[in-house]
Amino acid sequence: MKAKMLWSGAMYMFAAGALASDDQGYRKLSGSYAITSAHLVDPGPAQKRDRAVFFVESDAAKDLYQAMKGKAVRDPCSDELTTKTAGGLACSKEVGREVYTCAFGVRLESGTLIGAKVC
C-alpha cells in the first residue's frame, strides 16, 4: 500500500510539473519506458527487473526543464547538453537547439524515485 501511495505521489508530481503554465491543463506526453533492472544498459537475464524507467521528450520535457528550479550545468556525459537535476529527475537541453529530454526511474517495490539517466 505504501509503495502504491509513493508511486501515485511521484506520478502526480510528474504530471503537475508537466502542466503548461498558461492553461494549467493536462497535456499529452511523448517518450518511452521500460521495466528493467539496476543495470539499465544490457541487464543480464538473471537480474531482477524491479524498476521502471521513463524517458520523456518534446513539449513535456521542455516544460519540465523550464519549471525546474535548479541551475543548468554542462552535462557530464556530453558537452552538447546542459542538464538540470532534482532528486531522481534529470532533464537535458541540447546546446543551441530547442531539443529537450528527461529521465527518471521508480523502484517498483517501494515507489522510490531514482535516477535513470545513463551516459
* Proportion in helices: 10-25%
Assign the structural class, choosing from mainly alpha, mainly beta, alpha/beta, alpha+beta, or little secondary structure.
alpha+beta
Principal-axis shape: globular
**Termini, distance in Å?**
34 Å
- Radius of gyration of CA atoms, rounded to a whole number: 15 Å
The major β-sheet equals:
7 strands, antiparallel
Q: Which series of helices and strands comes N to C? A: HEEHEEEEE
How much of the sequence lies in strands comes to 25-35%
**Count of alpha/pi helices:** 2
Domains (count): 1
In terms of per-residue confidence, which ranges show pLDDT below 50 for 5 or more consecutive residues?
A: 1-13
The pLDDT mean sits at: 82
Please provide the count of β strands: 7
Structural summary, described in words:
- The chain is an alpha+beta fold and 119 residues long.
- The chain has one domain (2-114).
- 22% of the residues lie in helices and 32% in strands.
- The chain is built from two helices and seven strands.
- It has helices at residues 2-17, 58-67; strands at residues 30-36, 51-57, 73-74, 81-86, 89-94, 100-107, 113-114.
- Strands 1, 2, 3, 4, 5, 6 and 7 form a seven-stranded antiparallel β-sheet that branches.
- The radius of gyration is 15 Å and the shape is globular.
- The termini are far apart.
- The model is unreliable at 1-13 (pLDDT under 50).
